[in-house]
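Lecture 7 notes: from sequence to structure.

We start with a single chain of 146 residues. Read the sequence below before looking at the structure.
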Amino acid sequence: MNDRALGSIPFEDIQPGMTVSYSQTISDADIKAYAGLSGDHNPVHVNNEYAASSRFGKRIAHGLMSAGFFSALFGMRLPGPGCVYVSQSLKFKRPVYIDDTVTATVTVMSVDRGQRKVLFETVCTVGRKVVISGEAEIYIPKSKVT
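Now the structure, written as tokens:
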């Protein structure tokens, strides 16, 4: 099976400006599952009464849950299976609430052919508002996933 069949882009074909997106509507069940998996049971995420008195006015999703969509894009779409997440910077700009649809978008900023690394701009939006921004570096090994 080749890279294209896996849904990935061969390293040689990756160019600045390439972009892919993924959207997911955040549910109460998603937040509870993420709290259980991560161990982050901060009441601003899981307690309606507490969250209502917070600066957000209601429960918010974990920021890293939305940022996790970047990993899905890298690992499955661009560059795809076999790549390795090297680094990620994040700025959390706005909260994400239950029933918000988060769209994660990654865009190739530069390609280092010698080191086989790609620098991406990473952005999550809800509607037209940016909720997370950052940059990620991804390494693409020479070996292919088969």
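The chain has one domain: 4-139. Keep this in mind for problem set 3.
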